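Task: sequence in, structure out. Protein: Purple acid phosphatase.
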Amino acid sequence: MNSAGWTSLVLWSACFIALSCGTVRYQPEQIHLSYGEKERSIVITWSTGNETDSVVKYGGGGQLLQTKTGSSTLFVDGGQQKASQYIHRVTLYYEDPDSLQPETKYFYHVGSDRGWSAVYWFVTPPEKLNDWAPSIAIYGDMGNVNAQSLPRLQAETQAGVYDAIIHVGDFAYNMDDYEGQVGDEFMRQIETIAAYVPYMTTVGNHESAYNFSHYRARFSMPGPYENMFFSFNMGPIHFISFSTEYYYYLHYGFKMLVKQYEWLENDLKEASHPANRTVRPWIITLGHRPMYCSNKDDDDCTQIKNRLRYGITPLRLFALEDLFYKYGVDLEVWAHEHSYERMWPLHNYTVYNGSYDRPYTNPEAPVHIVVGSAGCQERVDHFNPLPHWSAFRSSDYGYSRIKVHNATHLNLQQVSDDLDGEIIDDWWLVKEMPRIRFPLAEKMMEDDHLPSSRSRRDDFSNNSLPPVVQIR
Ligand SMILES: *[C@@H]1O[C@H](CO)[C@@H](O)[C@H](O)[C@H]1NC(C)=O
Ligand SMILES: *[C@@H]1O[C@H](CO)[C@@H](O)[C@H](O)[C@H]1NC(C)=O
Ligand SMILES: *[C@@H]1O[C@H](CO)[C@@H](O)[C@H](O)[C@H]1NC(C)=O
Ligand SMILES: *[C@@H]1O[C@H](CO)[C@@H](O)[C@H](O)[C@H]1NC(C)=O
Ligand SMILES: *[C@@H]1O[C@H](CO)[C@@H](O)[C@H](O)[C@H]1NC(C)=O
Ligand SMILES: *[C@@H]1O[C@H](CO)[C@@H](O)[C@H](O)[C@H]1NC(C)=O
Ligand SMILES: *[C@@H]1O[C@H](CO)[C@@H](O)[C@H](O)[C@H]1NC(C)=O
Ligand SMILES: [Fe+2]
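Result:
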């Protein structure tokens, strides 16, 4: 090789190591969808290394005749190299002229005249929410290394099995590692599912670096709180995603913890107002660290004075179990423990079965499940002896499915990846009579176990709802 050849080889090696050096990166990557601010709107998010316009070309029938533009923000990793990327967002609304139509398969690609992505597609929900019985894959704790559940999720998602995917915290392990390259690689890998259905998220402890900056910058959840807490609706379900991490990373400040608690109470209050609950009878919360678990580790969920459940001691600040009980939350989905666990209907370590034979039909307390076994390099967690409040456990890698049947019936399944996709748990959550509150909530409020609720006792003049009505 001549000296020019050597020079260019050395230059290229240096470039390869630095991953930048004059090369331009206009190609869109890390494409993913989410639900936007307005119900059923779709946000398309992607990244480029260098600044470009933010354009989505889309259309039904395979022709990309419609154009929508958005904007980008510069995201700088907190590491030494200060690696940067532009994160682009474009929102498609039903209200836009000629824009989204219900029950339509849209094809799209993203980018700018400097480079276009591959063509992806998504399907819009039916116009009448009552006609929509969405199917959702839900899990937590899926990393870059050993993402065991990903191949099965790719096959199912691309075959149209799901309407959305929910990731309940702990992404990539960790998104900030190697100057943020682990996060980039993770986002490229989930593009194979997240570019087809909304990929809705909850923050976990592995996102804590730089005050959760990667999580806050990379996703596009609704609401003003940078993906940390928000709610969204899917058919008859009102989902509430919130940060359990505010309870543990107190050195980032109390302010957001206070704000979140106020927001949670207000959101629950609105969602459980008869006018809303009649239309969306199911309330499901999404939080990363559980209140209850029976794993053989000393995590906070094994402790009676768990911070989320009991509140931050000694004053029991921001306790969530009573709050969720008071507003009749139906299902609380958690992760963090690398296993699957389903509890009996539970409040304050007491089981409140609907009846002995049918514990999940008209249960008298929320049901908790832990779904943190999607796959990461930390391997699975094992268990202590079975407590009286726990119903089913498994340390297999896998993920859960929520299938809405109607306003009274939800079906939940746990898929084992270790057993080649076998369904190892299959159960129904049933509310035959529409209900806002659990029976004891009234008494709790009387007994003043909930200081903040006392003044608001009149929110519900009436504990029963009229029969579920057909909605638009
Ligand atoms: C593209 O981005 C790289 C890395 O941020 C930077 O060094 C380079 O100057 C940019 N090039 C252009 C043309 O903007
Ligand atoms: C962390 O971010 C929140 C906003 O989400 C902000 O209120 C808080 O002050 C930040 N904490 C630190 C230590 O920067
Ligand atoms: C129903 O929920 C919406 C938000 O989804 C809220 O704006 C409205 O105030 C709620 N209705 C009631 C009566 O609380
Ligand atoms: C939970 O139960 C314990 C005793 O088992 C009781 O001391 C405590 O007050 C209860 N907490 C609530 C919020 O009811
Ligand atoms: C709840 O129901 C399950 C299933 O029938 C049963 O094993 C358990 O003992 C029940 N718990 C209580 C407190 O009734
Ligand atoms: C709701 O779905 C369940 C399960 O598919 C079914 O048995 C029930 O009849 C349905 N109820 C209504 C009102 O359609
Ligand atoms: C509660 O609300 C239902 C439906 O609006 C109504 O039929 C019933 O009479 C109310 N009960 C009381 C005690 O107000
Ligand atoms: Fe975790």
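The chain has a mean pLDDT of 90.
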